[in-house]
Amino acid sequence: MRKILITGFKHSGTTMLMQLVKAHPQVGWIEFEEGYIELDKSKEFIMKLASKKVQNFKKYSWGEKLPWGTRDNDLDASRPIEFTKRWLKFFGNKARVLHILRHPLDSASSGLINNLSDESLKFSLNSLPRYIDFINQDERCATVVYEELVTEPQKKLKSIFDFLNLQSDKQIIKQVMNTELKFGKINAERAYVYKVDSSHNKQIDYKKIIERVKNKL
Q1: Domains in the chain: how many in total?
Q2: Would 216 be classed as within a structural domain?
Q3: Which of 3, 38, 57, 72 could be cross-linked to 91 through a Cys-Cys bond (beta carbons 3.0 to 4.6 Å apart)?
């Protein structure tokens, strides 16, 4: 079964994606931001940790969720690239990396009321192209566009589960979609929230960022 790394810029939907993947009956465990893969922990350490939480390695997939966007070495994407490299090296052909991409204005203003974090925006606009170019080189990595996931959840969940080699029949997708998430169920209104906020005049070519992605689910 697959070893799944879920990653993306902070407030891009990594928690939502983690919860949706974790809700699949063939996924035994997704670690929440402990950062074992980047703290010089060995593959043996991570496997030992997983063995305490996964009933059967042959039956269940498992993994970890790590966002970025808060440290100096996130600006050039060196940190997310490094922990992604390590995940791919540790787990070989069983490794899968799910990167979630959200409009930078929404991720930079998420959790803020009528405000926008210019620093967060700078970090995302600098790091996203570099990270995307890196994962484009490996077929074990794929990008999920946040806005497509919340507006076309059934279609996108099937693509995600197929990529992870998990069952993707309608019954399982319905079961996952009915999961109560941290922020409630999947909500299409969370796409392009920045459009209803007229307090800033930033212009970002998000389409160009999406077009940069080679393996989009």
Answers
A1: 1
A2: no
A3: 3
Containing 80, the helix (H) or strand (E) segment is helix 78-91
Q: Where are the alpha helices (DSSP H) in 78-152?
A: 78-91, 104-109, 118-135, 146-151
Token pair for residue 96? 């899968």
28 membership: H or E segment, kind and range? strand 27-32
- By residue range, what is the domain housing residue 142? 3-211
CATH code for position 147: 3.40.50.300
Spatial contact of 149 and 17, defined as CB atoms under 8 Å apart: yes
Number of H helices, E strands in the chain: 9, 5
Q: 146 by DSSP, 3-state: which?
A: helix
pTM over 0.70: yes
Mean pLDDT value of segment 133-139: 97
pLDDT tens track for 20-79: 999 999 999 998 888 888 888 888 988 888 888 898 988 999 999 999 998 898 899 999
Question: Under 8 Å CB-to-CB from 143, ≥6 apart: which residues?
Answer: 99, 100, 101, 132, 135, 213, 215, 216, 217
Place of tokens 């939907």: 13
For residue 9, what are its two tokens?
A: 């810029």
Does residue 101 lie within any of the structural domains?
yes
Is 66 a member of any domain?
yes
Burial 119-128 (b: 16+ CB within 10 A, else e): ebbebbbebb
